[in-house]
Amino acid sequence: EVILVESGGDLVQPGRSLRLSCAASGFKFEDYSMHWVRQAPGKGLEWVSGISDDNGRVDYVDSVKGRFTISRDNAKNSLYLQMNSLRPEDTALYFCVKDFGNFPHLFDAFDIWGRGTMVTVSS
Amino acid sequence: EIVLTQSPGTLSLSPGERATLSCRASQGVNSNYLAWYQQKPGQAPRLLIYAASTRVTGIPDRFSGGGSGTDFTLTISRLQPEDFAVYYCQQYGRSPRFGQGTKVEIK
């Protein structure tokens, strides 16, 4: 069974940092691009960042560029999101998501989702 | 950046009725890299359709996707009680983007 389990969410003050982790199992992690998607309370889905299978390509939504860094450790089957200079508008449930993986040089649809980890940014 | 606009915001229908959801892109979606997701309260989204019209294995055939270029639709032929949920379209390929969602509620 393919499983993604996020961790690291917390209540933090504006301007502080947080690192999210995602543990993957049940598939060959190193063969797939991975993503972070967030959902603010009562709102829609927002893609945050994606990383290719070999770390060769990363991309971010404009609102987090320069503040968030996505990374992965294929040896540990793990995905990470380092979030710096957090803002109240970053408050959301953060999902770890697996890419469908049909394209070697592009991102595909998102076929497996974790349950999410909650990040709350408030003073 | 492609902006996806979904309509209507809310669709009020009865079980057994047909639901037609629209997703319009601000510019053409390359190679129909368009997906549809279903999200129920308290759950993660679930992929239903990719490449505009290809159903994911295990998704009932009452769900169908269509369209190309800038205009796409998700049709649920006969609504079942478990289909009442929020539906999102998404373009992928380069920087993925989601539409704002359409809520399908029981009338």
Tell me about this structure.
The complex is a heterodimer of chains A (123) and B (107). With 123 residues, chain A is mainly beta. Chain A is built from no helices and 11 strands. In chain A, strand 7 (68-73) and strand 8 (78-83) form a beta hairpin. Chain B is mainly β and 107 residues long.
Secondary structure topology:
The complex is a heterodimer of chains A (about 120) and B (about 110).
Chain A lengths: L2 E5 L3 E2 L5 E8 L8 E6 L5 E7 L6 E3 L7 E6 L4 E6 L8 E8 L10 E4 L3 E5 L2
Parallel strand pairs in A: 2-11
Antiparallel strand pairs in A: 1-3, 3-8, 4-5, 4-9, 5-6, 7-8, 9-10, 9-11
Chain B lengths: L3 E4 L2 E4 L5 E7 L8 E6 L6 E5 L3 E2 L7 E6 L2 E6 L9 E6 L5 E2 L3 E5 L1
Parallel strand pairs in B: 2-11
Antiparallel strand pairs in B: 1-3, 3-8, 4-5, 4-9, 5-6, 7-8, 9-10, 9-11
Tally the helices of chain A.
Answer: 0
SSE order of chain A, one letter for each helix or strand: EEEEEEEEEEE
Structural category of chain A: mainly beta
Runs of chain A in which pLDDT lies below 50 for 5 or more consecutive residues are none
Mean pLDDT of chain B: 96
**Portion of residues in helices of chain A?**
under 10%
- Enumerate the spans of chain B where pLDDT stays under 50 for 5 or more consecutive residues: none
Count of helical stretches of chain B: 0
Chain pair with largest interface: A-B, 22 and 24 residues
Q: Which class do the helix and strand fractions of chain B yield?
A: mainly beta
Q: What distance lies between the first and last C-alpha atoms of chain B, to the nearest angstrom?
A: 36 Å
The first-to-last residue Cα distance of chain A is: 40 Å
* Number of strand elements of chain A: 11
User: Tell me about the biggest sheet of chain A?
Assistant: 7 strands, mixed
